[in-house]
Design goal:
The protein is α+β, with helices and mostly antiparallel strands. Helices cover 43% and strands 27% of the residues. The chain contains five helices and twelve strands. The strands form two sheets. Strands 1-7-11-9-8-12 form a six-stranded antiparallel β-barrel. The protein has a three-stranded antiparallel sheet with strand order 2-4-5. The chain starts with a helix and ends with a strand.
Amino acid sequence: MIIAGNFGRVLALVVLATAALSGCSKAPPQALGTLEYDRITLPAVVAERIVAIDVHEGERVTAGQTLLQLDEAQTRAGLAAALAQAQQQQDVLTERVNGPRSEDIAQARASLAAALAQARETRAYYQRLQALKTRNYVAADDLDRARAAAGSADGQVAATRAALDLLLHGTRPEQVAQARAALAAARAQAEADRVLLGKLHVVAPRAGVVDSLPYRLGDQAPVGAPLAILLVGDAPYARIYVPVQQRANVHVGDKLQVFVGDRKQPYAGKVRMLRSEPDFTPYYALIGDDAARLSYLAEVSLGPDAATLPAGLPVRVEFAGSGK
C-alpha cells in the first residue's frame, strides 16, 4: 500500500510538470497577411467614348477575349490621312528617282533657244543705237534702255541655260535621301495610327477574372484612366508581413505552411519575393507585443489546390519548420 501511494504521488507530479511545461510553451513565430492576385490594369490610350462592354465584373475571361470597345471614328480618319500622306511621299520619291522627263528637257532647250534669239536681237538693236549715237541721232535715254534690255536678255539666257543644266544633271542624291526619309516617317505614322486603332479594341492580355470596370457604356475616360482591371494567375498568393525579428530566418524559396481564414488544413506555399527594405507593419498584421512595428513585405505563392480561393481572405504563416 505504501509503494502504491508513492507511485500515485510521483505520477501526479509528472502530470503536473507536463501540464506546467505545456502551459509555458510559446506559439511558433507567425506572420499575417491577405490573399492576393496579380492585377493587370488596362488604361485608356485615347479619350474616346465607350461604345460596347462585352463582359461584367467577376466574369472569368480567356487571353484575347474582347472586354470592351472604344469609338474608332476619329482614329480611323487619322489613319486614312496618314496613309494618304505616305502615298504622296511615295510618289515624290518615285519622281525624284526617275529624274526629269524628256519633255521637260525639250521644253528647257526650246526656252534657251528663244532666250538666245531674244538676246541676239536686243544686242543688235543696242549696237545700232551705239552707231547712231556718234552722230547724235539717238537720245542718251534710248541708248541706256537698249543697253539694259541687252543685259536683261543675256541674264535670261544664263537662267534658262542653268535650268537646262539642272534637268540634264538629274536629281541630287541628297534630295532622294530626303524623300526616302519623308516616306519612312509617313509610313511610321501610319503604322502608329494602325496600332492605336487596334488598341481601341480592348482585349484580355491574359486569362483571369474581371475585377473592376470603372466606367460604363457611353463614358469617355481620360487618357491613362483604367478601363478594366483583371486578376490573373492560376492561383492566388499570400502577401504577408515578416516581422523584423524573423527576417534573418526567411529567404526566397523557403517552403511555408499557409493557413487561410479559419481553415485548419494549411496550404503549401513557397516564398517568391521578399523586400530588402522594411516598412511599418499595417495594424491588421501586428502580432502580440510587436514593439518594433517594422516588417518586410513578402509574397508566398500557392499551389493549384488554392485556385478557387478568393482574394482578400486573411492568412497566417507559421515559420516553425520552414525550409527550402
